């Protein structure tokens, strides 16, 4: 009876997490659409990161402050999620430097990285949706860590999730995944880091089944990555693309 009871609880949590992911993905897509619609409005600016000041102002009436690390606590999920910790509260406590092969001092990191890269890789920040040129990258190649150049994702695993962040169905061995039990992983997702330098990359969610017709539907996972944490190296002789570059269509709103 005890085993059966635990099985039922786990099943409920899995369904609960899936429904929450569905609502969260829909929220991200709606926010991205609002962002896209406002590109033609010169009075609306785009933030690089909630934690990074870039001199821009935000129109709170039009843009929602979305975060991958928080499951929405509104509508049908508000009561159910009231007692659950947010991703920020349940963040991985492991040091981003101790125990990793690639070591640099904080001063060296700041000199090597752009302010946005540093905020994401070393402080665990999150870039604004559609603020990385790599979100729309479709060529064959390898996505590597912007901090230490370790290979992290293959282009074959990339797909368009509609959330505004580069998304992948699978990761290479260079990606470290926060160790969580099945319930935690399904409810809030797990943090991703570069296994070589400890840099924060994004989060992985077990909602791949929602993206029918993409590689994620087969893997069951969505690796939601901050483009600024990556460098894309195309196959052949093409020049590498720094993920911190802002797409030309939104460049105006950062000036």
UniProtKB/TrEMBL annotation:
Keywords: Metal-binding, Oxidoreductase, Signal, Zinc. GO terms for biological process: protein repair; response to oxidative stress. One of its GO terms (cellular component) is cytoplasm. Pfam families: SelR (PF01641). Its cofactor is Zn(2+). Residues 106-235 form the MsrB domain. Binds 1 zinc ion per subunit. GO terms for molecular function: metal ion binding; peptide-methionine (R)-S-oxide reductase activity. The keyword RNA-binding does not apply. Its EC number is 1.8.4.12. InterPro entries: Met_Sox_Rdtase_MsrB, Met_Sox_Rdtase_MsrB_dom, Mss4-like_sf. Residues 1-17 form the signal peptide. It catalyses: L-methionyl-[protein] + [thioredoxin]-disulfide + H2O = L-methionyl-(R)-S-oxide-[protein] + [thioredoxin]-dithiol. PANTHER family: METHIONINE SULFOXIDE REDUCTASE, PEPTIDE-METHIONINE (R)-S-OXIDE REDUCTASE. Belongs to the MsrB Met sulfoxide reductase family. This is Peptide-methionine (R)-S-oxide reductase. It comes from Pseudo-nitzschia multistriata. The lineage of its organism: Eukaryota, Sar, Stramenopiles, Ochrophyta, Bacillariophyta.
